[in-house]
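Schema walk-through. Below, the input block comes first and the output block second. Nothing else is stored per chain. Lengths vary across the set, and this one has 138 residues.
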Amino acid sequence: MEQRRPPMPLMVPARPAGPPHGPKARPDPWPLRLAFGAGGIAAVSALFTAMVVPPGPAVRPLPATGMTTGGGTSQTPASVSVSRPVRYVQLAPGQVPPPGATVIDAKAPKPITIVTRVAAPAQQTVVVRTTQSGTVLP
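--- output ---
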């Protein structure tokens, strides 16, 4: 068996002669901490306000025509058209429709909707050969 050699002593390079260096300069953390703190306070304030204040109407109602608003008359149009959904009600035997209601007879023929399809002509495939740069080859 072979004997082990003793480890070689480590060679530490000599430091260059000169003034010793101080610690690296780092930026001051206080401005960013202050900004994060202000942002946190604003966020907590917004959340607290959203929880405490009751919700208001999303859209303010328009004043009626002719009413004064702050010293003058309003400029809203006299007629506003509102589209209301149509409600169909089936009356029981013996019931009378309300006054002004349009009555549709149940035995009347239903309107028919006819859908036709026109076949499009078959299109021919066009092959365009190009080079890598995009020039069209004949």
